[in-house]
Amino acid sequence: MEMQEEDFPALYNSADSTSLKAQNHYFSALICYLFLLILAAFVSYAWLTSVYGAITSAALFLITLGILVWLKVHKPEDIWYNGRAVAESVKTRTWRWIMRSEPYDDNIPEEQAQKELLNDLKGILDQNRSLSHVLEWTPNLGEAISEKMKVIRSLPWSERLETYVRDRVDNQSMWYSEKSQLNRRLAKRWFIVSIVLHSVAVLLLLYRIKEPASSLPIEVIATAAGAVLTWVQAKKYNELNSSYALAAHEIVLIKGESVFVKNEQQLSEFVVNSEAAFSREHTQWTARKIV
């Protein structure tokens, strides 16, 4: 019995979709902003004495100003972070429910367990009312409690443990591992780009000393180098690499504890401790405002 993304509560799917859209909007706006800054610097260099060049540069800077205003007013970065926080909170509650872990264990009737989960989901939504204007709901997002969730919850503890290790622990381990490696590669790539741009700027400055009358695009290169630095700071490649690698190692240790689970009570404790570890990493991620 495999737990798919669409099997999670509708609130999770809506928050996840909203977060991803806001993230794409934020970085798309940032890319446009940085590209237009470099383009404006190039236009100023290429048509230094041209009126049309000055007008074009001014227009480009006005567009970049508009992008900054849009980012300030619509705040896609906040929507991205808050949406991710809601999605992860719902996912944690969902796994604890389908694994019959506290507070949704066998000590309460099944109907009461469903009510407790629904109340917790309402609480998560109430704490994030700022997302109410962007959260969408369509029939394909699913129900508050899916049939797959109910089926897995009804399985014997050994089968639920197998599902949890495969679909939750292993899934998280693979995600963090892949993200760590990706951010390591991108950090190296952008570091090389930054070194090349700075080296070119230094060479051009040295050449200008030799030929003071020469016209060189030093300002354009400097703007490009600054744009690369801004992009790297926004993406936080090195920090994410370290954070995700540490999380991946911690999850491997978590998986090792699964072999000691021998009954329903131990499964509940294992899931509670595992979800606490996942939530701790996510809380740190939210506090640093990175992804």
UniProtKB/TrEMBL annotation:
Domain of life of the organism encoding this protein: Bacteria
Residues of the SMODS and SLOG-associating 2TM effector domain: 9-160, 164-285
Cross-referenced Pfam families: SLATT_1, SLATT_3
Segments forming a coiled coil: none
Transmembrane segments: 26-45, 51-71, 190-209, 215-232
Matches recorded under InterPro entries: SLATT_1, SLATT_3
Keywords from the UniProt entry: Membrane, Transmembrane, Transmembrane helix
NCBIfam families listed in its UniProt record: SLATT_1, SLATT_3
Name by which UniProt lists this protein: ATPase
